[in-house]
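Hey, can you fold this one?
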Amino acid sequence: MRFAADENFNGHILDRLRQTFEELDVVRIQDTSCYGASDPAVLEWAAQEERILLTHDVQTLVSYAYERIEQGLPMPGVILVPNTLVIGLAFNDLEILIGVGQPEDFENRVIFIPLH
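Sure. Predicted structure:
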């Protein structure tokens, strides 16, 4: 699976994921041409790159993700991790999703952490 971490995604969580999953294919948006781009542009880029987006942005990005789904546009998936969630809890749920998930499990979905 391929992931992209939104601009403000917690680097500590990302570091732990990379340590746990040595082959994890994840890029940070700030390391791409999308740095500073609007949410719709980031989602379009993620779709073109077939990357599931990791984000803390519940305010705006999630609504744009749902719009893409409603419009029938490609959307590899969004995983929303509230930035108020304890890092250990966020990591545990992400570890489960990444460890057992397949790309099709995320396609056209917005998944909220913590898992219930």
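The two ends are 23 Å apart (CA to CA). Let me know if you want another pass with a different chain boundary.
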